[in-house]
């Protein structure tokens, strides 16, 4: 007797199911290997940061990922502008220079008033703001 179409379909579906069951562990292992490789690369790239925050502890994969996120957030945050300090210093020098002469012209007086106002303005004062490192405690269940 010739095989029926239903029997042939049953065989091919069973064969596909068996093939998928055999492939699944291989594909899963490849996926885990990619994840582990990427985590090792992160650990290598950010090794100095890890030593700063956790010098004596063995890092787990979750620790490496958390510290990487913290480092990237810290790196992405805007840095305070350093040009403000130079501007403030320049204004101080101008006020000092214009204040030296006893005989002031109208232009000197206007400039002196302008720079003194700029010196006292909170918008132009250089805030002393240091970038504080983001140190978050690693989550440990124990």
What does this structure look like?
The protein is mainly alpha-helical and 142 residues long. Helix content is 68%, strand content 0%. It has five helices and no strands. The radius of gyration is 34 Å and the shape is rod-shaped. Mean pLDDT is 75; it is low at 125-132. Residues 118-142 are annotated as: Disordered. This is Transcription factor HES-5. Residues 85-115 form the Orange domain.
Name a few traits of the molecule.
mainly alpha; 68% helix; single chain; 142 residues
Task: Give a quick rundown of the structure.
The protein is mostly helical and 142 residues long.
Alpha-beta classification:
mainly alpha
The fraction of residues in strands falls at under 5%
Q: Secondary-structure element sequence?
A: HHHHH
Biggest sheet: strands, sense, closure? none
Pfam family, one: HLH
Keywords: Developmental protein, Differentiation, DNA-binding, Neurogenesis, Nucleus, Repressor, Transcription, Transcription regulation
Subunit structure: Transcription repression requires formation of a complex with a corepressor protein of the Groucho/TLE family.
Function: Transcriptional repressor of genes that require a bHLH protein for their transcription. Plays an important role as neurogenesis negative regulator.
Present the secondary structure layout.
Layout: H1 5-45, H2 47-53, H3 61-76, H4 83-100, H5 106-120
Keywords: Developmental protein, Differentiation, DNA-binding, Neurogenesis, Nucleus, Repressor, Transcription, Transcription regulation
GO molecular function: DNA binding; protein dimerization activity
GO biological process, one term: neuronal stem cell population maintenance
């Amino acid at each position: 007797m010739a095989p029926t179409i239903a029997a042939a379909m049953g065989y091919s579906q069973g064969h596909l199911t068996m093939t998928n069951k055999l492939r699944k562990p291989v594909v899963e292992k490849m996926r885990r290997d990619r994840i582990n490789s990427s985590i090792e690369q992160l650990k290598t790239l950010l090794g100095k940061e890890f030593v700063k925050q956790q010098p004596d502890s063995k890092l787990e994969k979750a620790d490496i990922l958390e510290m990487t996120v913290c480092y990237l957030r810290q790196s992405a945050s805007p840095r305070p502008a350093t040009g403000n300090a130079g501007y403030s210093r320049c204004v101080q020098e101008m006020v000092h220079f214009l204040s030296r002469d006893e005989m002031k012209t109208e232009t000197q007086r206007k400039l002196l008033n302008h720079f003194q106002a700029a010196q006292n303005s909170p918008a132009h004062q250089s805030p002393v703001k240091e970038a504080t490192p983001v140190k978050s405690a690693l989550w440990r269940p124990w």
